[in-house]
Every structure is written in structure tokens, then in C-alpha cells.
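Re: the multi-chain job from yesterday

Posting the exact lines I submitted so nobody has to dig through the queue logs.
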Amino acid sequence: MTTGKVTLLGAGPGDPDLLTIRAARVLASADVVLLDDLANPALADLAPNARVIHVGKRGGCRSTPQAFIERLMLRYARAGRHVVRVKGGDALLFGRAGEELAALRRAQVPYEIVNGISSGFAAAAALGVSLTHRDHCQGVTFVTAHRRDHSEPDWAALAATGTTLAIYMGMSRIDSLCDALLRVMRADTPAAVVQSASAHDERCVCAPLDRLAETARDAGLGSPAVILVGDAIGEAALLHATTEQREPVLRQA
Amino acid sequence: MTTGKVTLLGAGPGDPDLLTIRAARVLASADVVLLDDLANPALADLAPNARVIHVGKRGGCRSTPQAFIERLMLRYARAGRHVVRVKGGDALLFGRAGEELAALRRAQVPYEIVNGISSGFAAAAALGVSLTHRDHCQGVTFVTAHRRDHSEPDWAALAATGTTLAIYMGMSRIDSLCDALLRVMRADTPAAVVQSASAHDERCVCAPLDRLAETARDAGLGSPAVILVGDAIGEAALLHATTEQREPVLRQA
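And the result, C-alpha cells for all chains:
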């Protein structure tokens, strides 16, 4: 029996137009699609010949065990199928790609990787800001607030870098997260929450760090969302539209 | 006279197939294309109706002054044209998008942003690694070694975060950069250089940090390239192919 292959594919932040040309081509030729629940379900329409299996991995929620997803990938590939493992955003930022690549190498199953736009970039586009405006910083750090051992990231070390922080999977504990950041950053540090960046239900708020959690809660923002913190976020178009930068601002798509 | 608009467009890391579907559509309808020299010149073929102007901004090299690029954008937009400012990678990571967005807002010229795949993600794909393997780290920091004031980034603070480092524009001074990192990181920290990620001339080397500069030089690697440093890089497929992880490894496309 011929061995198939597995493509780890980043589906981008939500808007199907933000798929890469290669991703669309790969989906069109897929035999089996394993669809992450952070990826747009409409992507199934781009894989007309594929058996589509929904495998959720959203932090905290009811989800398919990682080991089962890996067994599924290997079983179909060994049966000669082209398996496309679709992840929201980029394939190599968070989301267990490391474990899946290791499993594929152990099993000696051929694989390829197709990058996608991570939601932190789409969030910056929604705000109309550079993630790394050179007047304010020299880089950006993508970090997850959802850790295997439920410990907190080292916010003091992250703040000390002076990079813009793009925090993923943080909405479920945005209050404690902001409290932790306020111990190591200025209360008026510009910050924002962008929900469903690039998707039809995109919404964002900008507020100084000490009012971000309250502002996001009042606006009813929830997951999936990216929390952005740093002086570069003070350039947001939303804030340019207001006179008082200490005033929180909400925008809906 | 009608006002046109400006699209800040991320062209991805090099392979035209890594353009987004939206980016291809926007280029097809462009009147004027301002092409960054880190973007693939072949992209001009995707804009058959556009006047294509090459505006280089590569660090250190001969380049078009930023103020001139901004004046050009505004002049054509005010003349009613759809100007597409094409940047390598993503539109909002490094590359002066912050200044250009500010200029567009000051001039009240309508703009839109189309994200692209940044070369750090394509570099991880070339290596077959997750940027954030949860066995090793909780995030990734994208940082430029090329600072306006020619000072060094705060490597100690960056190392203290434990995030994977993706260092852009560092090849011209990789020796001093690695020396600085060796003062704050283990000599055997896994590291890699990926030149022209995703492009036809993609090449990469993996080596422990204390041998990275020498290995990259011996392999003749140059700009544009991304330097990746951190334990997550130790998962590179290249290294799995060797028995001795202390041995540097080169791969060519």
C-alpha cells in the first residue's frame, strides 16, 4: 500500500480571503481534512473531495484528545491518503504542531507545512498599527496565557524586553492577566483586545492597560481574541479618532 | 478630483504561492505598485495594469528615502489612483508601516492593510519546527538586530523571557550578535539561520549557538535571512537526521 502524506496547514485568522494561494490548492486536493475549531468551518467548502473531520483543541473547552488526532492523521496517511491538518492562524505558532511533527517523524510519514496568517497580525491590521513601530519598540512577542501547567508567564521578563506583547488565549482570565501586567507595566500603557480578527464578527476595543479588562467586559468581547499591549498600540487608528487617549474606545465590524 | 486609496500589502516571504488570495486580487486591480526590494520582483506580473516603481528599503544598503516613498504614495492616491505599497513578509512587522500609516492618516487618505506571511514563519516551516513547542517555551519574539540608533537590543531581557528568538536583519553582524547572545544563553542553545525562506534559493543551517556564526559563514549564507535561537529549534527535522546534535548541519533547497 502506498503511503500518503500529511500537510500541516495554517488557515489564517478567519477571513477565507486570507488563506494563501498554496493553502487553497492543497485543500482542493485533500482526501481527508482534520479541521481545528479555531479554523473557519467554511474552509470545508474548499475541500470538495475530502472527508472532513472536526477536531477541536480550544483551550479549556471540550476537545478531542491530541493523541487521538495524531492517531487519526497517521492512520489515514498510512492508508495512502493526503491528510490536511487545518489549524487556525499559522501552523507553527501554538496549537501543538511540535507534537504532531514529532509523531509524523517517528512514524516516518511524509509531511509538508503550509504557513498561514496568525491572528496577531490580523489584529494589528484591525487596529491600523504596526506591531513594531520603531518609535516605540524593536520587536513583538507572541505569548500564550494558557500554559500546560496553568502557571503564569513571566510577565516581568516579558515587560522588560520592551517588545509589544500579543497575548493569545487570554480572554478567559483577562482580569488576572491585566492585574499581573499592571505590576510590571505603566497603568497607561496602550492596550487593545481584538476579537475574531478579520472575521465577520471582528470587534476591538482600545484602552489603557488599567482599564482594558473592564472595557473588554463592558463591550462583551470573548474568545477567540488577541490581547495587544505596548506603546506601539497607542498608534491605533481608533485612538486617533478620539481626543482623549485615556478614553477607552470600541469598534465593531 | 476623486481621492484614491493606499493598500499596505504584505507579499509574504518569497514564494508567490504564499501570497494571500486577497493580496493577489488587490495586486490585479492596482494602478500603482510601490515594490519593496525584500518583496519578490515577480509580483509585478500579478499587477498587469499597474505602474510598478521599485523602492528599496533594505537595511544598510542603498535605498529610497522613506519620506520620498511616503510622498509618492500620497501623490498618486490624491490623483485618484489605487496605490499598493508591497512589503516583504507581513505589512505590519518591521518595515516602517507605522510611519506610513501615520502619514496616510495625517493626509486623510483612505487606506487598507492586507497581511502577509512573515519570513520567520516560513523559516520555521523550512526547519520543520514549531516556533513555540510547549515542551520548550511559551512564545516567540520577533526582533530586529537593525536599530535606528545602531544600539544592540537588550539580549539579556530577551533571553530571560525563555521565548524562541526570531532575529531579523542580523546577518550583517551575526558574529557580534552571537557573541552577545552567548553572554546570556547556553553555548549549546539550538540555533539556525534560514536564508530566503520559501524562495527558490532557500538554504538553512542548524548549529549550537556557539558555532552558528562560523557555520553560517562556512555555508556562505547571507541576507535576507532569519536567525532562530531557542530550545524549540532543537526539534528541527535537519537535526533529527543526524545522530550528533552538536554537529552543525546544512540543507539547500
